[in-house]
Amino acid sequence: MTENPQPFEGIPLIAPSSTDHPLYEPIVEACRSVFDPEIPVNIYDLGLIYTIDIDAENAVSIIMTLTAPGCPVAGEMPGWVADAIEPLPGVKQVDVELVWEPPWGMDMMSDEARLELGFM
């Protein structure tokens, strides 16, 4: 019996962000203006933004998750994120995709978020 390698072996679970793009930091700051209504920390520091991808035409693709699939704002949160980013100068369009893999965990929070919530 031969062992089949995992089909995703070597592929990161979270795609890399366009950190070297000039719009990256303003987009991060825009994401920091969006809060999960149940947790007093912005969604970026909570670790809910997995990927910020910016293409050559400045179209922005966000891959994000929520703290739980049953989150009461699951239907609204992607729109809040798009609404925060779209007004930025230079942004052509924003597409926000909600994913559940990999699942969010408290280890994805920034140190600031952990401190704010009393976990350190």
Name some characteristics of this structure.
alpha+beta, globular, 4 helices, disordered N terminus, 120 residues, 22% helix, 15% strand, GMP Synthetase, Chain A, domain 3, three-stranded mixed β-sheet
How would you portray this structure in words?
With 120 residues, the chain is α+β, with helices and mostly antiparallel strands. It has one domain (23-106): Fe-S cluster assembly (FSCA) (GMP Synthetase, Chain A, domain 3). The protein is built from four helices and three strands. Strands 1-2-3 form a three-stranded mixed beta sheet. A hairpin with a 4-residue loop joins strand 1 (49-54) and strand 2 (59-64). It is globular. The protein starts with 23 loop residues before the first helix and ends with a helix. The model is unreliable at 1-6 (pLDDT under 50).
Put the structure in a nutshell.
This is SUF system Fe-S cluster assembly protein. With 120 residues, this protein is of the alpha+beta class.
The global form is globular
Q: How many independent structural domains? A: 1
By DSSP, the count of extended strands is 3
- The first-to-last residue Cα distance is 48 Å
Strand content: 15-25%
* Structural class assignment: alpha+beta
Please give the oligomerization state of what you see: single chain
Q: How many strands, what sense, and barrel or not for the largest sheet?
A: 3 strands, mixed
The low-confidence runs, each spanning 5 or more residues with pLDDT under 50, are 1-6
Examine the coordinates and then state which fold CATH places here, giving the name of the CATH topology.
GMP Synthetase, Chain A, domain 3
Pfam families: FeS_assembly_P
Protein name: SUF system Fe-S cluster assembly protein
Domain MIP18 family-like: 27-96
Organism: Roseovarius spongiae
